[in-house]
Design goal:
single chain, eight-stranded parallel sheet, Jelly Rolls, six-stranded antiparallel sheet, TIM Barrel, 10 helices, disordered C terminus, alpha/beta, 2 domains, globular
């Protein structure tokens, strides 16, 4: 399509624009809900994984944990548990939200449940009175992180639930299990205040699959929360791997209203494969942005829960920076797994790594060479530097309140009065981070939208100089 010309001349942030003919607004472009918009704008958060798996002898083996009950509730005995320490560690990394595993495969509940006796009420720890979910929610609110909650319904070793279904050793009916889960979710929805996200591990079977009716409970009590997910609704989608990255392009739109119960998204994958989860669909009818998740202890291993002596698995700082560029910078939301140890604290080495990651990102993005963030609608943005400058990162954002409109664009740098190509792209969405193959030098940057649905609405254009050059150490990996 022939671009509509719009020059936004920005001398270190100052923008002007001429009046141009209006382009008809697209009528069928999917738009984010308020909850989805807030989720994408948060960009980066952590998943705090704590359960019976953290305590006792032997390493966590997922298949065993799903079927082996832990009858001794007093195995849960973290002598120094401090949710505020977890939240501060996440904040030092630059996280804007945190999600707690309120229940996982063991079936143990980290709150004072009236519906389920297999919970903190039954322990000697804290005289049976402490509520980890409440302490976590309070710590998030004190320190400005959005609190989320992770609820496991697919597996429950204590009750003999396997892949959502009661088994011969369950001792309860499917109907009783469904009502139990509904009562638990109502407790979580009504006791603690506002939640940013409800994450149902592996999805949640709904009534049409013989499962509990959880969506109606969350929608009634937590209307502003992201719901992730079941066959009734999926406000976000898994990005197809646990690498903390998604390939480019990654569209926030999807051809189906849900991805299928289970993190394998079996119904979708059977027909379309993982590629659809990773890339999305630019012509999809539903807004369903991608999540990129990875454990902090995932470098050559895969530890979501703490194990002694696994500090060697901590992701290197340069890899974490690259992960951010290829998740948030690919129009996805990054969720990094952190794991308190058997004391109830995030280990010192993990805290230091999170802080180093936060500092590296701060160095990389805090002081742009030039930025334009008051951009009128149109198809061309010119960012003048006020002199010759060098840069190696370009950050683009669309105003996704109006949908993903850009479908093809070109980046150019001006050198000696001539415009030279830096690269091209298709999807921008909430954010696209270009890590250039080599440092570019010039006196202006230009973004030219070559194809769009309706009039392009860019929100921000920024050029950065990565002094630490951390991201480039991983540039040999596909972007």
């Amino acid at each position: 399509m022939t671009p509509l010309r719009l020059s936004v001349l920005a001398a270190l942030g100052a923008c002007t624009s001429p009046q141009l003919p209006r382009v008809p607004e697209p009528r069928d472009l999917p738009l984010p809900t308020a909850a989805q918009l807030r989720w994408q704008q948060a960009e980066f958060g952590v998943l705090v994984s704590l359960d019976m798996h953290t305590f006792g002898d032997g390493r966590y083996v997922q298949q065993q944990a799903r079927v082996t009950p832990v009858d001794d509730v007093d195995r849960f005995a973290p002598a120094q548990l401090d949710a505020e320490q977890w939240v501060l560690a996440a904040k030092a990394a630059g996280a804007r939200f945190a999600i707690l595993t309120a229940s996982h495969e063991s079936g143990f509940r980290l709150w004072q449940s009236h519906a389920n006796p297999y919970c903190l009420k039954a322990t000697r720890w804290g005289d049976g009175r402490r509520d980890v979910v409440g302490e976590f929610h309070d710590a998030c609110e004190r320190h400005g992180l959005l609190p989320g909650i992770y609820v496991g319904t697919r597996w429950n070793a204590q009750l003999g639930i396997y892949d959502f279904r009661v088994t011969e050793r369950s001792g309860i009916s499917q109907e009783q299990y469904n009502r139990l889960i509904e009562a638990e979710v109502e407790e979580l929805c009504t006791r603690y205040g506002e939640w940013f996200e409800f994450w149902f591990d592996g999805g949640a079977h709904g009534p049409e699959q013989g499962g509990p009716d959880l969506l109606s409970i969350v929608a009634a009590h937590q209307p502003d929360a992201v719901f992730y997910h079941n066959l009734q609704r999926a406000d976000a989608r898994w990005g197809g791997s646990e690498s903390g990255t998604v390939p480019y392009p990654c569209w926030a739109t999807f051809p189906f209203q849900a991805t299928g119960a289970g993190e394998s998204a079996r119904a979708v994958i059977a027909q379309h494969g993982f590629a659809l989860l990773k890339h999305g669909d630019p012509d999809g009818r539903w807004w369903m942005p991608a999540m990129s998740d990875a454990p902090l202890r995932g470098h050559g291993g895969h530890e979501w829960f703490w194990e002694p002596g696994d500090e060697r698995l901590l992701q290197p700082v340069d890899k974490l920076v690259d992960m951010y560029c290829r998740s948030v910078g690919h129009n996805s939301t990054l969720i990094l797994g952190i794991c308190p140890d058997d004391r109830g604290l995030v280990p010192d080495a993990d805290v230091a790594r999170l802080a180093a990651f936060g500092a590296a990102r701060e160095r990389q993005f805090a002081a742009p060479v030039a930025v334009a963030d008051a951009i009128a609608p149109g198809a061309e943005v010119e960012l003048a530097f006020g002199g010759e400058r060098s840069f190696d990162l370009v950050v683009l954002q669309e105003d996704i309140r109006h949908g993903e409109r850009v479908r093809g664009y070109q980046l150019q740098v001006r050198q000696g009065g001539r415009w030279l190509d830096l690269g091209t792209g298709s999807c921008i969405g909430h954010q696209r981070i270009h890590v250039l193959d080599a440092t570019a030098t010039g006196d202006a940057l230009r973004v030219v939208v070559r194809e769009a649905r309706g009039e392009p609405r860019l929100l921000r254009v920024a050029a950065h100089r990565d002094e630490a050059d951390a991201a480039r150490r991983w540039q040999q990996r596909p972007r």
